[in-house]
Amino acid sequence: DGICHHGGAGTTAAGLRAGLPTIVIPFFGDQYFWGDVVQQSGAGPGPLPAATLTTETLVSAITIISNDQVMKRVAQDLGNRIRNENGCQAAVESFHRQLPLQRMRSDLEGTYPACFRIPNYNLQVSWPVAQVLFSHALLTQDELIPWATQELYLDNNRVSDMGTQLLAQAISTSNTNLRVLYLGSHGITYEGAYRLAEMLKTNRTLNRLYFFENNLGDHGIQLLAQALAHCDRSLSHMDLNGSTLESD
User: Taking every annotated instance into account, which residue ranges of this chain make up the domain Erythromycin biosynthesis protein CIII-like C-terminal (predicted)?
Assistant: First the structure.
């Protein structure tokens, strides 16, 4: 027995939990990532992108998961491990291990995480700390700036052109504090470069953009160059290393 699907996170988890060798046919977003995870675990062959799928490649993959006894044992073992673990607890513990707690704590009193900045004093404070400062007339609400994301790392997540469009829209409409953006190795093309260029024309906070190893083409590079001519001097570094510059 085996399973073949698009590679969504939930579907992949359900198939592996059942202990089934898995074929992933991704077409969008994180599906490519989960296809790679399945292959690296040994529970399935390499992903078969929908855009290049053929009858022959699908038949070959089905033959592999039907006859490869090692792959079947790996999938069964993985299923047993998933069924026997407390997934929610493991996820929460992993989340907390990755938190930069020291950078998140409030200045002056570190019990609570900081949620505001006080630029005049170069401080980050929690709401309880801010209330104490208010009560002693040491601070006014006008001096508080809500804490917002300043660095966003999305390398190797297959954001795609559509994801880049949504991200650019979000930055343009809601985030005024983002300083560093990593979008490396996403296969982003001219369309994604266009959306990003439009955002750069109006953004006034981004100063470092890492856009390496994407498929921008000459037109995509031209759009980014034109955007730089329109934006102010806030952007000081743009990394396009390894991006494809030749047009199709």
Answer: 1-81
pLDDT tens profile 57-106:
999 999 999 999 999 999 999 999 999 999 889 888 888 888 888 888 99
Beta-bridge partners for 123: 118
Please answer whether residues 12 and 34 qualify as being in contact, where contact means their C-beta atoms are separated by less than 8 angstroms.
Answer: yes
What pairing do the DSSP bridges indicate for beta strands 116-118 and 22-24? unpaired
CATH number of 3-96: 3.40.50.2000
Q: What pTM, to 2 d.p., does this model score?
A: 0.49
DSSP class of residue 18 equals T
| C-alpha to C-alpha distance for 202 and 26, rounded to whole angstroms | 34
d(CA 36, CA 44): 9
CA distance linking residue 93 with residue 97, whole number of Å: 6
Residue 207 identity (one-letter amino acid): N
Q: What type of residue is 179? A: R
CATH architecture of 151-239: Alpha-Beta Horseshoe (3.80)
Rounded CA separation 242/69 (Å):
40
